[in-house]
Amino acid sequence: MKSADLLLLGASQVVTVDGGRAHAKRGAKEMNDLRVIEDGAIAVRRGRIADIGTTNHITARWRGLERIHCRGRTILPGFVDAHTHPVFAKYRADEFARRCRGADYEEILATGGGIHASARALRACSQDELARDVHERLDRMLLHGTVAVEAKSGYGLTVESELKSLRAIRQGAAKHPLTVVRTFLGAHVVPEEYKRDRAGYVRLVIETMIPRVAKQRLAKFCDVFVERGAFSIAEARAILLAGRRHGMRPKVHADQFRDRGGARLAADVRAISVEHVDATRRAGMRALAGAGVVPVLLPSASLFTGLKHIPNARALIEEGCAVALATDYNPGTSPTENLQLVASLGCSLLGMTPEEVVTAITRNAAVATGLAETHGRIATGRHAHLVVLDAPSYEHLPYRMGTNLVWGVVVGGRVVVREGRIL
Ligand SMILES: [Zn+2]
User: Which residue of 54, 86, 249, 355 is most buried, as measured by CB atoms within 10 A?
Assistant: First the structure.
């Protein structure tokens, strides 16, 4: 008998999301191949997965210091949220209420609401206050089974407040079990004070913000919002290439309302991922598949804003893309930390299969977040980042819409959530 630090036994399923030669799972055949072990068990040693198999196989070979009986529950790779905006000063419930009562977004913007309201509020906050909020939001993500998250700045829109936002993410994540990957999104929108000098703001992003973010090692990725009212393709290309020169790999918010060629831009600049792509046409999809850019779809934002724009997941998968799903957690268009809900919407709104949505919030999301080596699948020798759902099969994950099914979470071999509570 060999000795393990932790044994997880008696799971009705261990959903490994393993197999395949590349990091991401592309197209329908790979995305539907989850590699499930029935009556499964896992042995964990020194933070890594030492063995996987049936419960009989594991109990015959391993003795464990700590044993968890999963009693018919389902084990999956810990979820990865590939797209969030978790550093903001306050929620905008008042605005949401106004929208429900009939005000439109333009009207809310004109009366000082929307993203500009978020920018004003964030500028007035201290780094400590922001970090405390980030930490609480990470707790809620963890309770919903998320073990790694991509986190963007973008509500500061001044040099100091963008740096403060990224430092607040770093500070809020410092003593937290979640892995947090930071993205600089200074080019979220043009702030109010630059309304008559767009070129001036683009210069500020390129010449001042990006070099300082890079020098202080505050972000791994550089993102731009390509949209009317935000940034043009030409402006975005200049910003993304500047980011790349400073060691930050591009990400792009693209084609949310209309196909402006954002997907093609993402392919051209070798972005790691492209976000939204609600309106992207086939040519753009083929460019993404050809360049290996992961489309990160955000169906909770589509739902929350009234289903006017819905990404064509089926076409993206048909074209051979490795599709990922994320919450887009933010105070304006998607105030949810719950990736399980997003998985449900992947099936019900986007026509994905339960297998595809599981792949999309684990393995493909890990690739989109630059965490392919450490997250997103269960395999011998890899880090033990696991989630235990209080359900007999992974099909319950998209089916039990809006319900938090998380019973346990293991991060780096350590049990951090048990019986739905953070330890
Ligand atoms: Zn976003």
Answer: 86
